[in-house]
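Example record

One chain of 688 residues, shown exactly as stored in the release files.
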Amino acid sequence: MIRTLSALAAFTALILPRFAAAQCNPGEVEVTIAVTTDDYGYETYWELLPNGDPCGTNTIFFGGNTAVGCNGAGAQQQTPGGYGDNLTITEGPWCLTEGAAYDIFWADDWGDAGLSFEVFVDGVSAAQFVGTGLGETFTFTAEPPPARDMTVTKLNCPLYAFADDDVVVEGTIKTLGGDPVTGFTLNYRVDNDPAVSEAITGLNLVAGTSYAFAHGTPWTPMTTGTHTLAVWADAINGGADLVPANDTMTITVVINTPIPNIIDDYLSGTPQVVMVANADQDLLVPRDLDFHPDLARRELWVINKDVEATGGSTVKFTDVGGPAMTWLWQRDVNAWHFMSLPTGIAFGDNGNFSTCPGVFDANHNGGTPFTGPSLWDSDPAVYAQPIFGGLGSHIDMLHVTPNSQGIAHEKANVYWVVDGFNGDIVRHDFMNDHGPGNDYHGDAIIRRYADFTITKDPNDHIVSHCVLDKHTGWLYVVDHGGQRVLRLDIHTGSVTGPATYGPWETYVEYSMMGGYTWQEIISSGLQQPAGIDVIGDRLLVSDHATGEVVIYDLADPNFTELGRIQTGSAGLMGIKIGPEGHIWGVNATTNELIRIDPGVATDVTGPTGDEALQVYPVPVTDRLFVRGAGEHSANVDLLDARGRAVWSGTYRTAQRGIDVSTLGAGSYVLRIGATDAPPVHRQVLVVR
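Predicted structure tokens for this chain:
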């Protein structure tokens, strides 16, 4: 639940008297501590203590709200007092024994984080701590930092990516050394490959300063599977890092097989619509869907609209559409606020996902539209677990996009949202998530694009989704009320000034954008456009009124319509191209998850020769035959939906027949040709 503050005329600082300056004896160092509060400074209390002493014993200093005290963490009494909001207060100085360890104890009344600390020794930043949850005890040593010391504190690289796509190695590095850093060498290594290095110059970083980096040479993975990425700095000001133990940050990156673009296969034959799940699998007005970015899992998440009184829910399908498919319905304990009548879901490349609410006010009290996208951790130990207090398991939320209609991921914790109330597109960078159950949003960067109008469904039911083509930077947006599709080049535009709507909380940036490129690309032929997806030069749009999926040619300057897939039922909303290139969708009227398989082509031309290639019977139940002249030694593979070979042989042996009687029903791909070259024949088959 979101808290509200009663008006306070002032905050009273309940602290011990401060020193104007320290006169330290030999063997002592001068220490000061900069304390930073969040939006609710009065909730916090802290003490400086000798190492190992509990709060209240041999206290060197205390600050903040004494009504919270040593034992008030999580009490939620909200007694006014102590520090103000969003302030940095420098406490001290104190003369402490050089080389001795000291503790910082702190507690938060609400239990949702609230204080961060930076320790200065003889005027140089020597330690930094960011508080989380109920409160913690931090330990530092009272001694000046070494001359040269840098550490990678964060990597924003994708944890899931595709082979042959560039992976930008980016993140944050901090200098902890006493000497200002004017330059260093930034390095990364993948597995046991040689290090890739880049000189960073022209800096002036004092101790405690963080530096955001993006390595100039991207990593282009060539093989799929799990890889280890290590990043570190060295050659600081031309010298060695004096604390090598904290230099390197390492992450594991999963590289997926690229999704094949088989959309043109849907333009011939009759596509097959397969009902994968329905209300029996807990689907209740499903509006959107997305795959977990580790595509090998075949883990598909569907988001339900449900009802306002409870909030939305998700259904996670594992081995979706396969013989071992399972499903798990989940609702967060505070979905009423953080997932209220959701319209969209989008997975990020770090395993997090974001949802956007369709309500005007997530507090449901008719007041301020305190509403916008929420960020979630898909880890089953975190998401929807009732162990994080009254704010549920969400890991962040921003509040300037009422009646959100759709959401698309860009990178890290950056998402684009269709603001249905204002008719705008808004870029949300959550930056560092605040962790489950907390509520700090002040580090967010939000930018609003308002040179057009997106008109939502007046009945607040049919969605207006968006999707980002990460290869081109075009964001494609459905304008449901305008019966059209727009696109926006996210690499264009600049900040023109403060945003003109809200805000109702403090952000590091909330701006209006101008000078960007956008255009209307589809303005006719759609009745109730809703869902959208893109792959290569093909754009797909779902029509809620007709149940059709409409295919457009992005390579054509006129964005020509290439064809329509009939699903047979009105009510289609979110659509998604799956790992094997098949089209998936959810129908909010029939409460179904569907998969659309490509049509079966019966008139095909195969390898060159004296007679046409024939593949029959199609569909097939027990034995498949391949006939025709050509290269009798060519390889023939029958692939399942995951791209795995279930039968392999030569063109000659395939002429004698391929036994499919033991295969499960579904779609398979017949591939003829060398395995290391484009096929001379490729055909989608249905086995029954």
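Notes: The two ends are 52 Å apart (CA to CA).
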